[in-house]
Structures are given as structure tokens and as C-alpha cells.
Amino acid sequence: METEDILNMNESIRSVILDWHRYVDGERNVSSSRVDVINFLKGFGRFFYMVNPAETTFETVEEVPNYFAESWPYFLMFIILENIVLWLQKRPTIRFNDGISSLSHGLAHECSKIVFRAVESYCYISIYNRFRLVDLSWDNRMTWYLAALSMDFFYYWGHRASHEVHILWAQHQVHHSSEDFNTTVGLRQSVLQGFSFIFYLPMALVIPPSLFITHQHFNLLYQFWVHTEAVETLGPLEYIFNTPQHHRVHHGSNIWCLDTNYGGVLIIWDRIFGTFASDKKDEQIIYGLVVNRPFFDPLKKQTLYTNFVIRKFKDMDNWKLKLCALFFGPSWLPGGPRLGLEKEKFKVVPREKYDVKIPQWCNLYILVHFCVILYGYHKIMSLYQELSALFILVSVILIFTTLTSIGMLFDNHPYACSLEVVRCLSLVLAIQKVQFLTFDENFLLFMEVLFSLSGVFWFLKTVNVLQLVPYEKQEKVA
Q: What pTM was estimated for this model as a whole?
């Protein structure tokens, strides 16, 4: 590279930095293209908690942007970037079926937030208004930092409880159910995980509600990118922050990985409270659940373990043991300690990954329908306050049906074709009977044609009792 090119590059970087400062200071003499670059960098920085407190401090909850929902383009960017890095490293890239499955759980979780966010806000604001101990200024920078630290502290305990309390683990296990470890797993969550907001309610005694909501977004965004094998180590930062290396251990089903490294942004909580575990370079980390029941159907994945907890509860002889079955650890057995005996814990060894092979055209079909439903979700959620509760409920049901159908197609389930017929025809009916004022007419026409043709195709498959591939020829890959 010539010296003149380097000088020109430095001048361009300097110009963007100066524009950033002008923009932050409120000046408007910055070109729209530069503003777009600055906004992109700000959105990217949120994933690393690199934000300006002055720009992310709000007086009321209503003013707080939905940073998490706005970050979906960045999620996809990180996923693509991770795949490129893994490919360059000559390591396995994200499996399509497992990746879409993780994104499906993430989308289902986002839908559940419609209910849980309302309950969470009501409870937090009520406690803050009635019982707060101090009046901290919402626009004070020290309050902002205290809120960030408090959020991560209570996240640690909520996360730890999700592993050590059986009924909570029944929900959180969804996040750990993937046999892979990549950025898509960062979005894999339970639809009932929203109940964890109860662990943050002590913050309401001190922290203003708007700051609580703001840092809840940032804390979750940070945790997304630590789900990767593409980054080996972050050097000295490993002593203070939660990193991909620490979180890989947390997701391991090896005995030495269990119940460790609960931190969200900071790993210091684990070091302080005795739950820290460092990586063992001489032992392969095995991902997934200790007792693995692999399949891609998200509805089944969300409910299966809860049914197991209920059965364990019913099998106990008295109420004391029944309560222990709910509130002690997943490995607990009668007569044992709260988290179970170490010698009774199942030792996981390297195992084959569940991977049903389906035709490439079906993978393409799934990708198209997933993208359409993802776009529809974001379009609806961007205006959900203006929409009726019935409209949102029907939309959420159709989204859940789509995600379940996709999972069943990945599993090559014998009823997948039938469900896909019902789903597609239901969506056609909804498009024809419901006024989608927020959607472009051409897009609605595209969806109507897409779902009509899809419904007819799967109906023909159903009539002929054809599967994508013979069910007994499912394959597994290492």
C-alpha cells in the first residue's frame, strides 16, 4: 500500500471520528451516510457494552428503545461472520437444521415477551413506586453504572437458580439442548424463561425502572456473542469478563463443567462465589444435555422436560419429597444432598450428533418460510401497541405453528406434511380475511401465492403418504 493511500485512509477515519463527536454533541451538519455509519457502529458496540451512558439514559420506561428487537440484523451479521471465521479455520460451520432450530426458539421466546414484559414492568414499577429505599437520580452517571453492576449481579443468581432449581431448569434446559455451540445458541431460549424476572425485583428498591430495562437489554446482547468456538481466548480480559472460553465450559455436559460459570457480563461473581471453572485443554467439551433427547421440534423441546419434572413430583411419597423434586437440583434423589451426589452423576462421553438428512430443496423451502415469518413478526411487533390483542394472539399462534412445522420437517416427522397443509391454508385464510394495514400489498400477494402453492404441494404429499426420505434411513453425523 502506498504512503498516500495510508494518509488518505487515516484522514477518512479521522473524519468519521470527528463526525461521531459532532453527532453526540447534537450538531446536525453531518451527512446522512456518515450518520448511518455512526448508528451502525453504535448498534455493534451495544453487544460489547460499549455505549454512551448519556445516550442510553431515559426518564421513563416508555422512552427506552427495544434494543434487543432492533438487533436482529446484527444477530444475523454475527452468525454469518462466525461461519466465515470457522470456515477459514477449517472447522465445522453452523449446521443448518440446528441453527434454524435455535433461531426458532429465539423467535418463540420473543413472542412470549409480549406477556412477560408487561407483567415484569408492572411488578417492578409497583415495587419501585411503593417501596424504594432511596431516590437515585435517573440521569446521574453513577446511577447508570450502579444499574449495570446490579443487573449483572442479580443475573448471576437468577442464572444459577435456573441450573440448581429443578422446575427452573425445566425451562432453562432449552438453552442448553443444542449439541453445538455457536452464536445461534445464544438466541435459543425457553418461552417460559420470562419468569426469571423475579430475581431482578430487589433492584426495584433502588434502581429506577428505565435503567433496569435498559441494562437488561445490554446484558442480554453481550451474552449473545460469547456463544462461539471461533474465539479461543481474550487474554487478560478472561480474569474479569465472561468470555467465549468461559461460556464454553458452562455449556459443557462433562461432569467438571456442570453448575459452573454463571456470569453474564462479568465472571468475577463466579470467582467470588466459588462456581468458576477454567477450560481443560486436554479434554473435549461435549455440548447438549447430560441425558440427551435430541429432536428439532421446538414445541416438544419446550415442554418435554417439564413433563419429566411433573412425573418426578408425582412419584415422590410425601409432600416434603415432592417439594424437593421441584426445588432441589436436577440430579437430586431422595436421601442425597440438594444438588445430588457427584458419584451418581452421569458421565457423558463423546457421542454422535442428531442430524436427520432431508433434501436440499426442503432446506431451501424451510429457509424461505422462516425468513417470511421472521419478517412478519418484526413488522407486527414494531406496531404491536397499535394492534388489537386478538390480532396479536392469532399472529403468535401462527408463528408458533410455523416454527413447530419447521422442526417437524427437520425431524422428518410422519405428520409434518399434514401440519404444513393446515399451516399454509390457515395463513392464506388469515391473509384473505384479516386487514393487514401495515403490510405492503405486493408482499401480501406474494405471501398468499407462496402459502397457497405450498399448501397444495404438501397436500399432494399427504395424499400420496410420501415422506421426504424413508424414515428408517435417518442418519447421524459426528
A: 0.88
Q: How far apart, in Å, do the first and last CA atoms of the chain sit?
A: 44
Whether 197 and 123 have beta carbons less than 8 Å apart is answered as yes
Alpha-carbon gap, residue 254 to 186, rounded angstroms? 20
Q: Give 435 or 72, the one with higher predicted confidence.
A: 72
Backbone phi, psi, residue 309, to 5°: -65, -40
CA–centroid distance for 139 within its chain = 30
| Helix/strand/coil for 353 | strand
pLDDT tens digits, 80-126: 999 999 999 999 999 999 999 999 999 999 888 877 888 888 999 99
> How far apart are alpha carbons 151 and 207 in whole angstroms?
10
| String of DSSP letters for 231-299 | ----GGGGGTB--HHHHHHHHB-SGGGTT----SSBSHHHHHHT------TTS---BS-SS------HH
Give the whole-angstrom CA distance, residue 271 versus residue 263.
10
Give the three cell numbers for residue 96: 443448518
Burial status of residue 420 (CB atoms within 10 A of its CB: 0-12, 13-18, 19 or more): buried
Could you tell me which of 397, 396, 440 has the C-alpha nearest to residue 422? Answer: 397
DSSP alpha helices (H): ranges in 51-165?
67-70, 72-88, 96-131, 141-164
What distance in Å separates the CA atoms of residue 470 and residue 88, rounded to the nearest whole number? 35
Give SS3 for 476.
strand
What is the torsion angle, in degrees rounded to the nearest 10, for the CA atoms of residue 54, residue 58, residue 59 and residue 63? Answer: 150
